[in-house]
Write a sequence for this structure.
């Protein structure tokens, strides 16, 4: 293989790796990007094959269009029930999330929610006496949030988003106007907006609010949206400015058929190929350091071209952007656990409950983006000293997620003996009135929640599989109860009949709390396995995401988050990655 | 009468969608093949004989019958979802199971053509979207 020396080697071609590569190459640096999975989604033909795979799949879960390869295995939520997946789960709770090891990463099947973290989220210890503090605050990150919103193409109106201390630069607007709310959002909002619900020692006024989404909407001020990527095997690239607006395919998860929703290949396709080499099917196995802790190379195994070949990539600096779990795995597999033992610890997610109900009249779901609005009014409050914060997604896809509708409705009606015009009428009546909230609850960094490795569990390339210890604590469980209560209050105010306690045929992990049992699922929001901190004793990385112990090694992604509040992590992953790229470029003299 | 036409007539009685809707899915011939592969042509012909041009009580009787009922319900489920769902164990034990009787999505086209989406004036996730912003309004009835 080529012995070319690059300025920087990046491991992982997801959103973090792609944005780091983008900003380093913009500074004139050369980059080698190692990706464990295939590059199949970067050409339109390959992407369409993934779409076809989804259409033909029996199960339509988030992983359906993106099957794993044996050499770069990945977790699949379908494996949770039988414990036979990629993760070795020690419990006591099941870690219910998945990610994708393909070029493009998990942005291939994310929802597109692009919330900024709240200023108060960066100092949970200082503000509420729980969790940890970040070494940087919202103000430091604000310019990078703007850059991330530009790079990813986020649609929103500042007027909707300036709440709970979220401040925007003077005159700032998002690159595109907000995605229109769905009819059911507006129907609900007309009935509940301004309704006050008790929380802690106070009350909060509910609002069904548009959230920022990395989905193409109506551009502002000359912004050119980016659409489907088509970088073909012969190197030709289709005009990337053929970006269409969201068509309402109601399939953000697991695959936007037209790529109106951002995925990391959109960033990669715009990078100068003279400065970037992407090497797919190259699974990093170790980070190799000298006696001073300086990284010399990354060892990786290439597969897919006959025999598996082991190679080393060398560079001046190294960036691990392989995902919270895979980053921790790489450090641990390299014998680079820190003296404080924190690599792999503080694993978090947003464990999420569903609330679902029937409106008294049709609200016409199963159309539009999978969701367009949220309830953000319970993300902030002094009560965070006692229990977690939470936010809701308001769905546009009926009861698909909680019950397996509409198939589940068809089944139940057939069981009940319905057929013909009567079946059709009853089904239409049921489906047209379905609403769903996802109640995503914050988790604190708990050092006992962790990723470890065991030589007893290896993948086909001989790389260890992640072993997960995971517990949902009282702080989060209490908030699950609160979130359910709030959802019920909103349903009641709107005249929505609450079905959340109805038994369903679908299987979910459960967690007991007092005399309750919560059925929850993962949100895919992995975080906390290599946290940033104020000094080497309390963290793995400094505020620039550089390893305290390794002067030329950076780890980016949500693994760096000491806390993550309630916002979906992607925008903060992007903002922190861009900041690190800028600081690293300066460090390398670019 | 052509067998396919009989199949579509019988399917119209079962699903509440008319023949034009069913032919318009583009998967009617494939579904007849799916049914044949799952239960064999003899059972299919018995089902068609019971349903084509049948009055409501006769259709209800077929659905209530332990022989034809499970097959008819599986056929309705197929039309609504695009998925053939394996017949109940009791039916398979009594009448013999064919290799085609496994739970499967018939094709990408079948998934997209599921009548369940049409019933609620919507579309299968990932196909036939209604266009930017259309979701802000109540759903329109299909235009003929």
């Amino acid at each position: 293989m080529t012995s070319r020396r690059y300025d920087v080697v990046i491991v992982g071609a997801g959103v973090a790796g792609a944005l780091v590569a983008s900003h380093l190459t913009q500074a004139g640096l050369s980059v080698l990007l190692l990706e464990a999975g295939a590059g199949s989604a970067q050409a339109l033909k390959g992407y369409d094959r993934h779409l076809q795979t989804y259409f033909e799949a029996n199960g339509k879960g988030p992983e359906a269009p993106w099957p794993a390869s044996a050499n770069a295995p990945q977790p699949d939520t379908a494996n949770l029930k039988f414990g036979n997946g990629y993760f070795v789960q020690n419990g006591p709770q099941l870690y219910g999330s998945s990610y994708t090891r393909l070029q493009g990463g998990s942005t291939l099947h994310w929802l597109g929610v692009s919330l900024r973290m709240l200023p108060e989220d960066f100092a949970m210890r200082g503000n509420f006496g729980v969790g940890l503090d970040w070494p940087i605050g919202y103000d430091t990150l604000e310019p990078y949030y703007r850059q991330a919103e530009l790079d990813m193409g986020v649609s929103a109106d500042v007027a909707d988003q300036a709440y709970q201390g979220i401040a925007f630069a003077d005159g700032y607007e998002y690159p595109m106007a907000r995605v229109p709310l769905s009819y059911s959002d507006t129907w609900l909002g007309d009935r509940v907006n301004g309704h006050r619900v008790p929380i802690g020692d106070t009350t909060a006024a509910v609002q069904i609010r548009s959230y920022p989404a990395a989905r193409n909407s109506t551009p502002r001020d000359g912004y050119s949206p980016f659409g489907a990527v088509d970088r073909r095997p012969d190197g030709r690239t289709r005009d990337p400015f053929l970006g269409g607006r969201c068509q309402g395919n109601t399939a953000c998860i697991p695959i936007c058929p037209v790529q109106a929703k951002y995925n990391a290949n959109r960033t990669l396709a715009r990078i100068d190929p003279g400065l970037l080499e992407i090497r797919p099917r190259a699974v990093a196995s170790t980070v190799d350091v000298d006696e001073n802790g300086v990284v010399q190379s990354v060892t990786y195994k290439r597969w897919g071209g006959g025999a598996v070949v082991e190679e080393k990539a060398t560079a001046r600096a190294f960036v691990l952007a392989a995902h919270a779990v895979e980053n921790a795995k790489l450090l641990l597999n390299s014998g680079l656990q820190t003296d404080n033992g924190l690599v792999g610890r503080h694993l978090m997610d947003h464990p999420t409950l569903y609330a679902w109900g029937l409106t008294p009249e049709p609200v016409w779901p199963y159309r539009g983006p999978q969701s367009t609005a949220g309830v953000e009014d319970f993300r902030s409050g002094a009560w965070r000293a006692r229990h977690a914060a939470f936010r809701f997604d308001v769905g546009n896809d009926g009861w698909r997620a909680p019950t397996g509708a509409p198939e589940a409705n068809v089944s139940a009606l057939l069981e009940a003996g319905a057929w013909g015009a009567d079946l059709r009428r009853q089904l239409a009546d049921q489906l047209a009135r379905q609403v769903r909230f996802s109640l995503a609850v914050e988790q604190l960094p708990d050092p006992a929640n962790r990723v470890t490795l065991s030589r007893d569990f290896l993948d086909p390339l001989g790389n260890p599989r992640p072993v997960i210890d995971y517990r949902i604590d009282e702080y989060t469980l209490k908030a699950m109860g609160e979130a359910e209560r709030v959802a019920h209050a909103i349903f009641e105010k709107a005249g929505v009949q609450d079905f959340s306690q109805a038994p369903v045929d679908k299987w979910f992990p459960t967690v007991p709390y007092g005399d309750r049992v919560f059925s929850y699922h993962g949100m895919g929001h992995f975080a906390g396995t290599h946290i940033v901190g104020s000094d080497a004793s309390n963290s793995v990385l400094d505020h620039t995401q550089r390893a305290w112990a390794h002067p030329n090694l950076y780890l980016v992604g949500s693994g760096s988050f000491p806390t993550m509040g309630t916002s979906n992590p992607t925008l903060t992953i992007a903002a922190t990655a861009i900041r690190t790229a800028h600081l690293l470029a300066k460090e390398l003299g670019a | 009468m052509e067998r396919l036409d009989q199949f579509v007539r019988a399917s119209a009685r079962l699903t509440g969608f008319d023949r034009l809707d069913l032919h318009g899915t583009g998967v009617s011939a494939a579904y007849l093949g799916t049914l044949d592969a799952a239960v064999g042509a003899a059972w299919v012909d018995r089902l068609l004989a019971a349903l084509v041009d049948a009055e409501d009580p006769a259709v209800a009787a077929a659905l209530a019958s332990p022989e034809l009922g499970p097959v008819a319900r599986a056929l309705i489920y197929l039309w609504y979802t695009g998925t053939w769902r394996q017949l109940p164990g009791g039916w398979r034990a009594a009448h013999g199971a064919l290799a085609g009787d496994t739970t499967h999505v018939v094709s990408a086209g079948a998934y997209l053509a599921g009548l369940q989406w049409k019933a609620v004036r919507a579309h299968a996730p990932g196909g036939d979207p209604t266009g930017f912003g259309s979701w802000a309004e109540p759903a329109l009835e299909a235009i003929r």
User: Anything to note?
Assistant: The first strand of chain A starts at residue 6 and ends at 11. DSSP finds 13 helices and 20 strands in chain A.
